[in-house]
Target: Bromodomain-containing protein
Amino acid sequence: MDFWIIILLLSQHSQITGNLDNAWATHFLEEAEKLNFDQKVLKKKVNTEHLQHRKILQFTIILVSAKDFSKTSQQKDIELINFCYDILHELENKSCALPFKCIKKKDMIIKHPMDLSTINLKLKNNQYKSLEGFEKDIRLIFCNCYTYNEAGSEICYLGEVLESVFNKKWIEKITHQVKQRDELKRVRDDADIESEHWKKQCRILE
Model:
């Protein structure tokens, strides 16, 4: 479960618990007043209990966040690899990708050689730490294609076709990722609002 989803659930739980707790405390003080108990002492006791409950909830949130953040780096790596693999497989499955799957020995004059097989190997070895690194290698393939082959040649044409496929897929994936990030931010903002509402409820009896 996503970190912010967990926080949201905790926040919603705390709001419900807080509302019930406040209702109980108010009723308790009203009944105590009827019995002529010392209101000052009782109110202090109720506030102490509220504070203790709040500390317990905060501690729970800290434990959850620490556990999830320990997995954040690994999760990001997995998401990065999956993102890149989706695009790579899309390119590899195109018939126009054949000349770019593996560099031939006669093409070793290329100063900075790059092909789809090398990118695949780098993904398997977790060598990409960012999307920019992956994109740079993909675009290096096309750059080499246009640099070391005559304009208008068949291989340049195939390179243009494959680059067009890459650009379309890249934009689609990036757009989808941005939408997911915006949705996550919305959930996070909602969680912050719920948390602030709970804090205000807890301050009622303070």
User: Anything to note?
Assistant: The CA atoms of residues 91 and 166 lie 7 Å apart. The helical segments are 3-34, 39-92, 116-124, 131-148, 154-202. The chain has five helices and no strands.
